[in-house]
Specification:
This protein is mainly alpha-helical. It is built from 24 helices and four strands. The two termini are 12 Å apart.
Length: 598
């Protein structure tokens, strides 16, 4: 591949990325979601049946038509229009269309898919199949079973609710500081669902134990006040259509259809529907994609934004830092969420991304330095006892998204080291200790083959849906910035080189179909390694081949088709339209470094 084509591709990618900026930040565009559309359709249908509201019925009818058009040839649904069918999303869509009394032409293929993948359509087969998919984590299995019960697919009346586990909503009555010790059966961000679904199950099939039943009745109003207190001002829990819909429909079923939480939830669903009648998995990832954009543009080491524009973007990012304790998770001030909207929650992936982006734009003076001190301290306080980083809350448990993640830990490691020279003596000493613990966690969590599993990304074509390329690339990028190369870094390099396809691309693992996102991530990581270490012929060749593949796959930067590699939670897939553009721009910026791919 000629150097001119490579540099031309980089210029095109950068130009397109800069053109995507709307004022002082990037917003991106998340994929429409069958899962979100199904849950919103159910919530709006139940609300219409209570209130006879034609607006709700119109939205539900449009959602129904979108679902019918999105059905895959095998009768099932995937989370996005590019996703393979899965039993979870198909169960929700099947239930939604059952509630909507869709035609047999639509329902029969859906039922056939469920029968084939659950082993039967009887209540026991359905409930066992859903529970088996998620194991001890009730975060998503119980909401799915709740929807099946609402649709009458688990049996008639109270009998249908027998297979829906009773979530202990009464535990939400305890102080938030107790949650880590109570070992809730859902992850930290699912507290609203714990309350609302627990109330619905209690209403439909209360405990036969008079003491338990009485206690739950006694705390009902208290947990409803808690739910009201943690609901964002726009009604959208986490800006997430599924979570908000689960809460809304469950409260209606629990006899709380007039509650303010329901009203705000319905307002959120009305306000977030798309023109085609669908809903996304979340409203936007504006803060996340802005940090990715800034860091991608900075990867080449030269400023790509005029000073005034960079100042505006930096000010916007600083404005997204939380300055008060978050009412939802109890997160301390100092962190960033993925979005600028009210439903965001501070987390350990967006916070390092923001810290790195602010640093990339030159630090931004005293205000940025103060914000960085707070952000660095927030990450230090969140670090788990094993040295790794959880997503939202320290020490909630071993459930996915509350346990430590390699990709999150690597991101925090990079942010800590980027700001280390600017920190106070005390904070710097804490960072040094935290870095050592984080590195040891990464060494222990590395798989025998040299790869790492990420927490927030997957590959639908790889075994176990694991995107080892994403996880390994993110950790390698962090390890490459350490003073000395470790055996773990060497193993990661070897794994990435060996995972590259003969055509030069990478998928989620060796032998998996390649994507722009995964190839770009691998190229970026290997280029970072080549920049900071003595590059081998193998790593230089891998970077060159990867860049060549990207030139062809993107039509020299003019086309960046997305792939569903994003995990929202509980194995819910999404794609973000800007991901391939962002990752490819970073890959070319890093990969065209003379030392990285000479």
């Amino acid at each position: 591949m000629s150097a001119e084509r490579l540099h031309s591709t980089l210029r095109t990618l950068r130009g397109r990325l800069l053109a995507e900026r709307a004022g002082d930040h990037w917003e991106g565009e998340l994929s429409s979601s069958a899962l979100s559309t199904a849950t919103a359709t159910i919530a709006l249908t139940l609300a219409h049946r209570r209130q006879a509201n034609p607006r709700f019925e119109n939205l539900a009818a449009r959602g129904t038509q979108w679902l019918i058009g999105a059905q895959n040839n095998d009768g099932g649904w995937g989370d996005t229009t590019l996703s393979l069918s899965n039993i979870s999303t198909t169960a929700l869509c099947w239930a939604a269309l059952t509630i909507r009394e869709a035609s047999a032409e639509v329902l029969q293929p859906a039922a056939a898919y469920m029968e084939a993948h659950a082993g039967g359509l009887d209540p026991d087969s359905l409930s066992v199949a859903i529970k088996r998919r998620y194991g001890k984590d009730h975060t998503f299995s119980v909401p799915i079973l709740t929807v099946l019960a609402i649709a009458g697919l688990l049996g008639e009346g109270a009998a249908g609710w027998r297979r829906v586990p009773q979530l202990p909503f009464e535990l939400a009555a305890f102080p938030q500081s107790w949650y880590a010790f109570l070992q809730l059966p859902v992850v930290s961000y699912a507290l609203p669902a714990l309350i609302a679904i627990g109330l619905a199950r209690h209403r439909k099939r209360p405990s036969r134990n008079p003491v338990t039943r009485g206690f739950r009745n006694a705390v009902r109003n208290r947990v409803l006040r808690k739910l009201d207190a943690i609901q964002p001002s726009n009604g959208g829990f986490l800006e997430a259509t599924p979570l908000t819909s689960f809460v809304t429909m469950s409260l209606i079923v629990a006899g709380e259809g007039e509650h303010v939480v329901v009203r705000r939830g319905l307002e959120f669903l009305e306000g977030s529907v798309r023109a085609d009648g669908s809903w996304p998995i979340d409203t936007n990832l504006a803060t996340w994609v802005t940090t990715l954009a800034v860091n991608a543009l900075d990867a080449g080491g030269e400023p790509c934004l005029p000073e005034a524009e960079a100042t505006a973007v930096g000010a916007w990012l600083l404005g997204q830092q939380y300055r008060e304790t978050h009412p939802y998770t109890g997160a301390a001030p100092g962190a960033w969420a993925w979005t600028d909207l009210p439903g965001g929650v501070p987390d350990a992936d967006d916070t390092p991304g923001a810290l790195l982006a602010v640093r990339a734009m030159g630090g931004g003076g005293p205000q940025a330095a103060e914000a960085a001190q707070r952000g660095v301290g927030w990450l230090l306080d969140l670090q788990n006892s094993d040295g790794g980083m959880p997503t939202f809350c320290r020490g909630w448990g071993a459930l996915p998204f509350d346990r430590s993640g390699a990709d999150l830990t690597a991101h925090a490691l990079r942010a800590w080291r980027a700001w280390r020279p600017e920190l106070s003596l005390e904070l710097g000493a804490r960072v040094d200790r935290a870095v050592g613990r984080a590195v040891r966690y990464l060494e222990k969590s590395q798989r025998p083959d040299g790869s790492w599993e990420p927490l927030w990304f997957g590959s639908q074509h790889a075994e176990g849906d694991l995107n080892l390329t994403y996880g390994t690339a993110r950790v390698l990028s962090a390890l490459a910035e350490l003073p000395e190369e470790s055996p773990a870094e060497s193993r990661a390099v070897r794994w990435l080189v060996e995972a590259q396809g003969a055509d030069g691309g990478w998928g989620g693992a060796a032998g998996v179909r390649p994507s722009i996102e995964e190839t770009a991530l691998a190229v970026s990581a290997l280029a970072a390694h080549n920049r900071f270490r003595e590059p081998s012929e193998a790593t230089k060749a891998a970077v060159r081949k990867g860049l060549d593949w990207l030139v062809s796959a993107t039509d020299e930067g003019r086309r960046t088709d997305p792939s569903p590699i994003g995990f929202y939670f509980a194995k819910l897939w999404y794609f973000e339209r800007l991901y391939p553009l962002l990752f490819a721009a970073e890959a070319f910026s890093r990969g065209l470094d003379e030392r990285a791919a000479d």
